[in-house]
Structures are given as structure tokens and as C-alpha cells.
Design a protein that fits this description.
Length: 455
């Protein structure tokens, strides 16, 4: 049986410790032990973040986890390579967490995924893992106890991984840094995480001088951000008004580029053009923009990501859990419901514009984690994308948007072994994206109900 490593958390998540345990993956009966690991690891993450005295002694750093050595051979009869191609009868070799071959010889452990559709793990370029419901069932706020907040973030991460998303970009809260680090450095179960930490919110002339704007970007870099997230418009719930000029965006995105960082911009209306002309890498939402704005973004090579299948629908379905916090008002919710057809319209415009890089993102918040794949169905129904194009937008295209096109998003030798399988063929039946039966990230199996032929 293929197994994955879940360390004894009491040994500070050290995969090389002699008491590291191996557990079968992942029947439903094992979920409780996995969630217990979440509790313990989240506790450790909070302690690390808080710098408690118990952990302040001068000791050697904990070694990073090592991927299972393998070899493992994944046997398939139908696979998608993440670039728009169908692979027949591929035998995917995995050694040390990376794909070695698509024609691997027998040897080592075997995972039989014949009867399923195999593909690269999905990538969501815009989520909010910090967003979760608290113990009362309401959207959590800063008043939530830190331990409970850590558990909420950890659970959102786990649900996202179980939904088939092996890499996510979470953009909006410093609390996402400990999560990223504990997954990357200590083998905590979750998707690969990139984070912007806190976003930069435009406030017109009060945002700051050019040097102050550059200093904000440098500060995010020093804090450990992977990218810069910028609000160039207010929320749709409060009017979607511009908050930064193109000149200010040029300073922010230019400084990010100079530091080797990418930039993502929350933008509505003509702010889409402004962000693209300013050299920013990715524009989110784009509602109320025009075809000319989209054409400008395409000309500048900007990644574009409208959301049509999950975020607004989730807000409306969970309205009572959000109302009364921040700008979550009845009026704001009504605006999102009223203008949902305009979200669809700008997505259709973008999807039909030649050479547009319409990348996958969901803006998933509390109530949506683990259901990110609903966006695929929205892209197909409301944007006119084919199932293959929609899938590729969350694979090789999303990897390109993250600057990781040589590592993830493709089934090919030397790529990370981030591999998922669906029960069904999503090209013929797009609802198969809801039926993720196998998840491997970095060569570690986190979800697998067993071979279809063995059932």
C-alpha cells in the first residue's frame, strides 16, 4: 500500500526523527487522526509565530522534510498533461518527489489509476485561506482567539488540498505566512502556499509619496511576501471606485519587479487598463471594464482573472454568516447579486479575446474552501471556455502566472509530482471536477481510496 509521512508533531515535525510514523492514506476512518495532527501542528505554528519562551532556546533548525524516495509508478490509461494534450497509457515515474518519466518501467511501488482521469494538481492563483467561520458559525474577525484562528486557517488549507488544489496563492493576511512555512519546512499537510501577506490598499493622494510607496513594497519583501497584492479599486460592495492612479501603480508594481516580485491588482472599471499599462502582472475581477480595457491588458501581457463560479455565489449562500462585519451589508450583497451578469459578461469578453491569458482564480473565502473547482464549471457555462481550456488555466497557465512554469502545472519529467485523479472524464463531463479521488503533492499521497479495478 502506498503510504505518506505524517510526523509525530510532538517531535517538532522532524521527518527524520526515529518516532516519525507512517499511516495508510487516506480512508475516511483516518480523517480524525489527520485532523488531530492539524490541531497539534497549528498549535506549534502559533507558538513559533508568537516566539514563546519555550521555543526560544538556541538549537539547530529543524531539517526540512524529505520527499519519499520511491520509486513509484503511477499507471494510467487516460491523463491530461496540463498543456492541453491527452496522454494514453502513461506510466508516470516518481522519485524523490519529482516526475522522472511518463514511460516508467516496472519497479518500486505501483499506484493503479486506470479508469480515472489523471492530471497535474490544480493551481488557484487567488484565495484567502485566512477567511473562515468561527465557532459561532459567523465570519471570523480579529477578536477570534489566535489558536482558533490557526485551526481555521489550517482546516481551510486541508479542504483546499482535498479538493485537488496542490498550489494556492493566498493574498491578504500576515497569518498566512506561518501556514506557508509549516507546510514548506515541516511537512504539514496542505497545498503549496504563496502569500502576499497584507495587501496594499490605495487611498488616493493619502496613500503616500513615491518613496513611501516603494518603502511599503520593500517592507513586504522583508517580511517574507512572495508577491505584492494591491487594491486599486474599492470593493464592489462599496462602489468599485478607483483608489490609485496609474502613476502610483507604476511605482508599486515597478518596485515589486525591481525586487524580483510579482504584483496582483484588485481592479474594476478602467483600473484594469491602468494596472496593465503600469506593468502589473495580474488583474483580478475586472467587472465593469470594457472590451478596450481587456485588449489593453492582452497587449501588455497581463494575466486576467474574472471570477464567475464560486465567490459571489458563496457570499450569497452564506449571507447571514457575513452580514454585519466590515462592508458585508445587505446593500453590498444586493449589489453583488445584481451585477453577477456583468461578471459573466467581462469573463466572456476576456475568454473570446485572442491571446488573452485568462488564468484560474476563485477568490475563495469562508464557505468556499475545498469547492474551488466550482469555478471550472462557471468558466465553462458563463465564459464560454472549453473544459480543456478551463483546466489548463489552473495548470500550466497558472504556473506561468506564478513564475513557476518550470516546476508545476505539467505532467512531464523534472516537474514536481503534484498529481490528482478524477472519477470521470472532465472533457466529456465537466462535473467530474467535483470527484477528486487521488491527491499527490511533491510525491506524498494525501488522498486515495484505492484502485478502481480492485473495487
Amino acid at each position: 500500500m502506498i503510504i505518506a509521512r505524517f510526523p509525530d508533531i510532538s517531535r517538532h515535525l522532524n521527518p527524520s526523527h526515529p518516532n516519525t510514523t507512517l499511516i495508510p492514506l487516506l480512508p475516511a476512518s483516518s480523517m480524525l487522526s489527520v485532523l488531530n495532527s492539524f490541531v497539534k501542528a497549528a498549535t506549534l505554528a502559533v507558538m513559533l509565530a508568537a516566539g514563546t519562551g519555550a521555543l526560544s532556546a538556541q538549537v539547530a533548525p529543524i531539517p526540512k522534510p524529505v520527499s519519499p524516495a520511491g520509486p513509484v509508478v503511477i499507471v494510467t490509461d487516460r491523463a491530461l498533461d496540463g498543456r492541453g494534450n491527452v496522454l494514453r497509457n502513461a506510466r508516470i515515474g516518481v522519485v524523490d518527489g519529482r516526475i522522472t518519466s511518463l514511460h516508467a518501467a516496472a519497479g518500486g511501488a505501483t499506484i493503479d489509476l486506470r479508469g480515472y482521469t489523471v492530471m497535474p494538481g490544480w493551481i488557484d492563483t487567488h484565495v484567502h485561506l485566512d477567511s473562515h467561520f468561527d465557532r459561532t458559525g459567523r465570519i471570523a474577525t480579529e477578536s477570534e482567539p489566535p489558536m482558533e484562528a490557526a485551526l481555521g486557517i489550517a482546516l481551510a488549507s486541508w479542504e483546499t488540498l482535498m479538493g485537488g488544489f496542490t498550489t494556492v496563492q493566498t493574498v491578504g493576511d500576515p497569518a498566512e505566512k506561518p501556514l506557508r512555512d509549516v507546510i514548506r519546512d515541516h511537512g504539514f499537510p496542505g497545498p503549496r502556499v504563496l502569500t502576499s501577506l497584507a495587501w496594499i490598499e490605495g487611498k488616493g493622494d493619502n496613500t503616500g509619496t513615491p518613496e513611501q510607496l516603494r518603502a511599503i513594497v520593500r517592507e513586504r519583501k522583508a517580511q517574507g511576501a512572495d508577491l505584492i497584492k494591491i487594491f486599486a479599486s474599492t470593493s464592489q460592495r462599496v462602489g468599485a471606485r478607483p483608489t490609485l492612479t496609474q502613476a502610483q501603480l507604476e511605482i508599486l508594481c515597478g518596485e515589486a519587479k525591481a525586487l524580483g516580485m510579482r504584483s496582483m491588482v484588485h481592479a474594476y472599471r478602467s483600473q484594469v487598463s491602468a494596472a496593465a499599462l503600469a506593468g502589473c502582472n495580474q488583474v483580478e475581477h475586472a467587472t465593469y471594464a470594457t472590451a478596450e480595457d481587456i485588449t489593453t491588458a492582452v497587449r501588455m501581457g497581463t494575466f486576467i482573472s474574472p471570477q464567475v463560479g464560486l465567490v459571489v455565489q458563496n457570499y450569497l449562500a452564506n449571507k447571514a454568516r457575513y452580514l454585519g462585519v466590515g462592508n458585508y451589508t445587505e446593500e453590498g450583497m444586493a449589489t453583488m447579486a445584481r451585477d453577477l451578469p456583468l461578471d459573466f459578461e467581462i469573463c466572456r469578453i476576456a475568454a473570446s479575446t485572442p491571446n488573452a491569458k485568462v488564468v484560474f482564480s476563485t477568490d475563495a473565502t469562508a464557505g468556499a474552501h475545498g469547492r474551488n473547482a466550482e469555478e471550472f464549471l462557471g468558466r465553462i457555462e458563463h465564459c464560454g471556455q472549453s473544459p480543456m481550456v478551463a483546466l489548463v488555466s489552473a495548470q500550466s497557465l497558472a504556473a506561468q502566472a506564478l513564475g513557476m512554469s518550470n516546476r508545476i502545472g505539467t505532467l512531464a519529467p523534472d516537474y514536481e509530482a503534484d498529481i490528482i485523479a478524477l472519477d470521470g472524464d472532465p472533457i466529456r463531463d465537466p462535473t467530474a471536477v467535483r470527484r477528486v479521488v487521488f491527491v499527490m503533492r511533491g510525491g506524498v499521497v494525501y488522498k486515495w481510496g484505492g484502485s478502481k479495478r480492485a473495487r
